[in-house]
């Protein structure tokens, strides 16, 4: 079987597309002061921001999976009036400017927010300026990615496998955990990775809702932004770290996951 | 025919002087200014400069003034990375010196205003903040600007002068964000400029800081090197420094140059 | 053990209305054309499709009753189902697939596994325990599907076109094996098929279903000898007529009279084997009282025979030798005369 070759026009456009992404990345790599890199990498502030970013983004992904998979399941399997509208609303954070998302979160979970006010009054719990607030902000913007991907996976799977499982005596929970979820594992994985990547890079909602303080709410993107003002070269190094981590994850998302998702 | 010629000559002279005015000659009459200028100004200058821009445009019909407000360090980065600006108004000398030292200014910066700090709280001062020391009270959520922002640096200095040790819950990117969070009720107190408290009107309340602890912020302004409309830029700066401009600044709470 | 199912289901344009009763000791095949509703019937019995009306009882236990709203969910019915394309779980090994039903019902992992391995041995797939379904051939997958359905020890076994997914050469061998396995299983056995040969080999009793309705029931031989619908007649390869019989005359719906030798009265089916239909170029004289003209509408050669479709007052298929065909010098559309003897007409009650 001959390997397929791209038609000229498609190939040219594809190359342009690649350059569009590669040139900025190249710029970042070339302009970084590599001699400063080790110091910047090991500075306590950087490590703190990195640690916080990883903890927060992984927690957000976990929360997104916990809430998002059931949501995707409901959207894919249950018919109810207003489903399309509800789905659109919960996908909104994807298109909303992140800062707007942050403001919305404040109005809901801030000290005087709809729910936040009650939380403060009853339990003395506030979310802004806390790491949990960061997790909330990241989950808000990143979960839609997971829901969308998992829902697509659920819709495209052959439901007769679930029927087969039921004839074998599997109750609904067993069907879900031993048949449905394993069958959509590629979609679930891809959705989780997209979600995690989005959470890791989140800035606008985080700084608006959770604020910015090293060790508590200053994630990598915030650190980079602030560093840009005083020490641009230092911010390049941090940016590269974020880049490297993201690249590592995406590369591990090999064809077999993205292809079959 | 003689009369005709002089009419034509007069018209030509007007046209020529109008063209000449755009290239930055100091002798051009005010009515000859035209074009657009981009003014990059510190966030704390928002209200005042909007007013200044408005009256400048009214005086010079052909001119449009566009503003870009942000934390001063952000503006410096933007300019150095190639953003197109005609005028740069900084909230401190340090950032201005940096821009100048990196070679992005034309001519000497001029100080056009001063500002002092003030504590900002919710209307009615529900947490009963009466001074810098109260910021450290338990149960008070205190936020300020990041130390890279002039106001943030000044707030650290003021607290040091007053001998108060308090950890902010957040380091915002500019004074406006601090004000917003006080307005929204997310934080109880912050340190901003008196002009910011004034600009926020009834949505916030201010608690003065005694002169002994306070820090005076110096606001210099300069024409940016390579400004597309340097002539109008210089005219705008002149206006800011003029009696009329100073008076306007005063109404917003700034102190004289 | 017994199954008593009255199933009325409306799915899209299909209106299924069938009553079915069977007991252990017989293998019942549901035979019918595609779209007849056979699979839907099976799914309804399994509880995968809700009843619009009717009732399903297995061993005197009500599984579903549309009138009272009673409904036992699929997973609690003791019914094994072999699907047309097997639906083996692709992410589980062959052994885990077979053990699935046991594990789902709470059997301990080790016990389930050993039972699964026993079953694999029984269907001749020892050594494939760790393989994934994708690595197996069609025939092997069919056996895994069967083992998987039987491992939990269900009271009823439903098979939906069990051989349809196999190629012709594999089918014969698998059919033999399936017959053996079915014989060793002591429970209700229902097989859905559109292949009359499959039905004839596997089943003790046939139920013919067309357009969602029950058409006839009987042993394969009974059904073949007395087809009660065009579909079955075509399957068997005979001519089928329907009419009102009265002392040797059968009056068809359009008034045509056919002479038959039987003295049956009432609504009847009349079957004439194609071999009994003679073709002539000119109107024949002599004994046959059933003579009609018509024109040829198609000729098919089947090795040493030719089947000629003739349309006229009656539509019949005549079977002639290729030599006879040549003699007749038939071209499509040419006029012919067909005849058959009254004694060749088999008549039976409709």
Order of helices and strands of chain B: HEHEHEHEEHEHEHEEHH
Strand content of chain B: 15-25%
Considering DSSP H and I runs of 4 or more, what fraction of the residues of chain C is helical?
25-40%
CATH topology of the largest domain in chain B: D-Maltodextrin-Binding Protein, domain 2
Radius of gyration of chain C: 25 Å
Multimeric organization: heterotrimer
Sheet/helix structural class of chain B: alpha/beta
Largest Cβ-defined interface:
A-B, 20 and 21 residues
Helix content of chain B: 40-55%
The proportion of strand residues of chain C reads 35-45%
Report the CATH architecture of the largest domain in chain B.
3-Layer(aba) Sandwich
Domains counted in the coordinates of chain B: how many? 2
Strand count of chain C: 21
Write down how many β-strands of chain B occur, each being a DSSP E stretch of 2 or more residues.
9
Order of helices and strands of chain C: EEEHEEEEHHHEHEHEEHHEEEEEEEEHEE
Low-pLDDT stretches of chain C are none
**Count of runs of 4 or more consecutive helical residues of chain C:** 9
Description:
The complex is a heterotrimer of chains A (261), B (257) and C (350). Chain A is mostly helical. In chain A, 77% of the residues lie in helices and 0% in strands. Chain A has helices at 8-31, 37-42, 44-77, 83-91, 98-109, 116-123, 131-156, 160-167, 172-183, 185-201, 204-210, 220-230, 232-252, 255-260. In chain A, helix 3 crosses helix 10, helix 7 runs antiparallel to helix 10 (185-201) and helix 10 packs antiparallel against helix 13. The mean pLDDT of chain A is 88. Chain B has helices spanning 2-22, 46-59, 72-80, 93-101, 150-162, 175-184, 194-200, 230-241, 243-251, and strands at 35-42, 63-70, 87-89, 105-121, 142-145, 171-172, 189-193, 205-208, 216-224. In chain B, strands 1, 2, 3, 4, 5, 6, 7, 8 and 9 form a nine-stranded mixed β-sheet that branches. In chain B, helix 5 (150-162) links the parallel strand 5 and strand 6. In chain B, helix 3 (72-80) runs parallel beside helix 4 (93-101). Chain C has nine helices and 21 strands. Chain C has helices at residues 38-46, 94-104, 109-122, 138-150, 168-184, 196-202, 220-225, 230-236, 322-328; strands at 2-11, 14-23, 27-31, 53-58, 61-65, 70-71, 79-82, 156-160, 188-193, 205-210, 213-218, 239-246, 249-252, 257-259, 266-272, 278-280, 290-302, 305-312, 315-320, 335-340, 346-349. In chain C, helix 2 crosses helix 3 and helix 2 runs parallel beside helix 4. The mean pLDDT of chain C is 89. The chains are: A mainly alpha (261), B alpha/beta (257), C alpha+beta (350). Chains in contact: A-B, A-C. The interface between A and B is medium-sized, with 20 and 21 residues.
